[in-house]
Amino acid sequence: MDTNSYIAFLVISALLVVIDAVVVTVSGRKYLSDDDHPGRSAAASWLTTTLFSLIVLGLVALISTVDLPVEGSLQKLVTKLGLVLLLLAVAHAITMAVLTRYRGEERQEHLAEEFAEQSREHAMKPRVSRSIERDEPYSTT
Q1: What are the two backbone dihedrals, phi and then psi, of residue 88, each rounded to the nearest 5 degrees?
Q2: Is 99 exposed, middle or buried (0-12, 13-18, 19+ CB in 10 A)?
Q3: What is the DSSP string of 87-109?
Q4: pLDDT by residue for the chain (141 residues), tens digit each?
Q5: How many angstroms separate the CA atoms of 88 and 24, rounded?
Q6: How far apart are CA 68 and CA 123, in angstroms?
Q7: Helix ranges restricted to H, 32-72
Q8: 0.85 exceeded by pTM
C-alpha cells in the first residue's frame, strides 16, 4: 500500500469512527434519558462512546499495518475499509449491548426506589377493611 492510499485509509477510517461515535453518543443519551437524573445518562453515554472510540481507533491502527494478500493498491484499500466497517458494526453492537445493560440496571434501581417508597407509605397508613355485618371498620374484638 503506497503512502497516499495509506493516508486515505487512515482519514476515511477515522471519519467513519467519528461519525459512528456521534451516532452512539446522541442515541445513547436519548436511550438512557432519565428525568430524575439527566446528567447521569449523558455521562454514561459519553464514557461509553469514549471507550468505543479508543478501542476502534486502536484496532484501525492495527489493521492499517496488516499486509493483505490482495493485488493492487485500490483493492487493498477497499478490503481494509471493509474490515473497518465490519469492525465498526461489531463494536457498535457491543456498545449498544453495554448501554442496554446500563439502562436495565438503572430501571431496576428506579423501580426498587419506587417500591420502597410505596412500602413506606403503606406502612404509615394501614388500610382497614370494612366489617360485613356492621358496615364499619373491621375489628378483632
Answers
A1: -60, -40
A2: buried
A3: HHHHHHHHHHHHHHHHHHHHHHH
A4: 788 888 999 999 999 999 999 998 888 887 777 777 667 777 878 888 899 999 999 999 999 998 888 888 889 889 999 999 999 999 999 988 888 888 787 778 778 888 888 777 766 655 666 666 666 665 555
A5: 11
A6: 70
A7: 38-65
A8: no
Task: Show the CA angle centred on residue 138, arms to residues 136 and 141, nearest 5°.
Answer: 115
Query: Cβ(88)–Cβ(56) under 8 Å?
Result: yes
Query: What residue has cell string 419506587?
Result: 114
By the 8 A CB rule, do 3 and 74 touch? Answer: no
Identify the CA nearest to 105 among candidates 32, 26, 28.
32
